[in-house]
Each structure stands twice: as structure tokens, then as C-alpha cells.
Amino acid sequence: MNEIVIPVQLIEALKKAQRVAILTGAGISAESGIPTFRDQLTGLWAKYRPEELATSKGFQRNPRMVWEWYAARREKVHTVEPNAGHYALAELARKVPELTLATQNVDGLHQRAGSEGVIELHGNINRVKCFDEGLLVDSWNENQGIPPRCPRCGGFLRPDVVWFGEMLPDEVFEKAEYAAKKCDVFFSIGTSGQVEPAASLARIAHGIVITINLEVESLISPYRYNFNGKAGEILPLLVQKL
Ligand code: OAD
């Protein structure tokens, strides 16, 4: 592993920052054992077709397959733990006056690590809603087939995640956008920046932009800091220096 150097100017800027905004993606949960989407070998979208598993058309075509795929991912999420990257961001919130954390992840690991007020841009795999009515459902009869049925209307149940072609939940994106526009320091962590509108947050971000992922070229400049490396190694080092 290359030695990770956190530039002094960055630490100073973070110490002065009044508002910090963060966007995370699948990469922050990779060290917990959850596969990312676009890794060429291990990524979920390298093995499965997103239009079959992450669109309402795909669900209508094969609801059983889609339900079972998400049920398996939900099981996986329950067997893993937040990692040092998730914990470092929860700690960072205690060190700066205002912090807004928006995630594209549906695994709930930020919350389990102690982050509060997390903006879930793409929903949460632990919640279930009615495909027809869109209302959240807490419990259902397991004996009515797969997918289970909505206890209110009898429609199929589906995960409460945002599929391709669907709108983000009301006001959720506006909150993240506002935080990005108003912040002094913006972090883009573990995301390939290929999915809109989440990716646009890094482009509209005000102030210093820090990017951490395995693909970015390392860079240090007054307004941009790119770290090529693992969030679970870089973030704890950075937060410890504040
Ligand atoms: P991607 O799989 O597109 O990108 C993952 C990013 O994480 C890549 O840039 C990797 O370099 C980086 N990465 C991998 N391991 C890392 C580590 N240990 N530390 C830091 N970075 C690491 O995932 P997302 O950008 O999150 O949407 O994908 C965005 C959306 O596309 C997902 O929310 C999902 C997917 O389709 C929906 O399902 C709606």
C-alpha cells in the first residue's frame, strides 16, 4: 500500500469549514463485503443486467426473480458490519459545525455506524413498499407467494429502492443539492459518478472538493484533492487529524 499523505492545507481547510457535504456510493461499503456495481470483475452490473433487476419493467416481467435478488442482497446486508470509513464519517459529523451526508447506498450502513440525518438518495433495501400504490408496508403474509402481496390492495410488494427511470423521493434530492451548493468542503466517496442526478452534486459543489475512490488520479490543488485509495483507510486518517 502506498503511504497515504493528507495535505496540511486540507486539514486546515476542514478545521475552518462551517459546512461539510458528503456524497457516498457503493465503494464505501465495499470494505464491508458488499460488491459495488461497476467493477469490471466483481461489480453487480458486470454479472447481472440492470434493466432486468433495477427497472419497473424488469419487475413486471419477472417479479419473482427481482424480489428474490433483492431478498438475497438484504440478507447479505444483514450479515455485514459498517467499516472504518462509515465510522470515520460519523465521527467527522461530531467535529464540524454542520455536516450533510447523502448516500446512493441502500444498505443502511451509515446509520448503523452512527451517522444521523442520512439522506438516502436511492432508498433503503430494508424497506418494502407496494408496487401499485407506492406505500410502505411493514408486514405481510409469507404464504401468499413470491413476491408477497400488499396487505391493503393485494398488489405485489417490492423493495423501497429507486430503480432506473424512477424519480428520487420527494425533497430528498433538493436537500442534498442545497447542502452541496452551500458547503465549504464537499466529499465524493466511493462513487463512479455515472448515475444522475446524484453525480451532479459533485459538479455543483461549492468550495473544496475531495474525491476518494479507486479510479481517480491522485491530485492536490487548492480546491481539489483526489485520493486514489480505500475510503476505509483514508477517511480514518483524515478525521483523526482534525
Ligand atoms: P459504482 O459501482 O458505479 O462505483 C463504485 C466506486 O467505488 C468506483 O469509483 C470504485 O473505484 C470505488 N471504490 C471501490 N472500492 C472502494 C473503496 N474501498 N474505497 C473507496 N472507493 C472504492 O457505484 P455507485 O457510484 O455507488 O443505483 O453507483 C451509483 C448507482 O448505480 C447505485 O446507487 C445504483 C447503481 O445502479 C441504483 O440501483 C438506482
From TrEMBL:
Q: Which GO terms describe its molecular function?
A: histone deacetylase activity, NAD-dependent; NAD+ binding; protein-malonyllysine demalonylase activity; protein-succinyllysine desuccinylase activity; zinc ion binding
- Residues annotated for Zn(2+) binding in this entry: 130, 150
- Domain (Deacetylase sirtuin-type): give its ranges: 1-242
Q: Which Pfam families match?
A: SIR2
Known cofactor(s): Zn(2+)
List of residues binding substrate: 70, 73
Cofactor stoichiometry and binding?
Binds 1 zinc ion per subunit.
Q: Provide the alphabetized UniProt keywords.
A: Cytoplasm, Metal-binding, NAD, Transferase, Zinc
The enzyme's E.C. designation:
2.3.1.286
Subcellular location(s) per record: Cytoplasm
Q: Does the keyword NAD apply?
A: yes
Mind naming one GO cellular-component term on file for this protein? cytoplasm
Which residues carry out catalysis?
Answer: 122 (proton acceptor)
Instruction: Cite the binding residues for NAD(+).
Output: 104-107, 190-192, 231
According to UniProt, the reaction catalysed is: N(6)-succinyl-L-lysyl-[protein] + NAD(+) + H2O = 2''-O-succinyl-ADP-D-ribose + nicotinamide + L-lysyl-[protein]; N(6)-acetyl-L-lysyl-[protein] + NAD(+) + H2O = 2''-O-acetyl-ADP-D-ribose + nicotinamide + L-lysyl-[protein]
Protein's job: NAD-dependent lysine deacetylase and desuccinylase that specifically removes acetyl and succinyl groups on target proteins. Modulates the activities of several proteins which are inactive in their acylated form.
* Similarity section: Belongs to the sirtuin family. Class III subfamily.
Report the domain remarks: 2 residues (Tyr-70 and Arg-73) present in a large hydrophobic pocket are probably involved in substrate specificity. They are important for desuccinylation activity, but dispensable for deacetylation activity.
What's the protein name? NAD-dependent protein deacylase
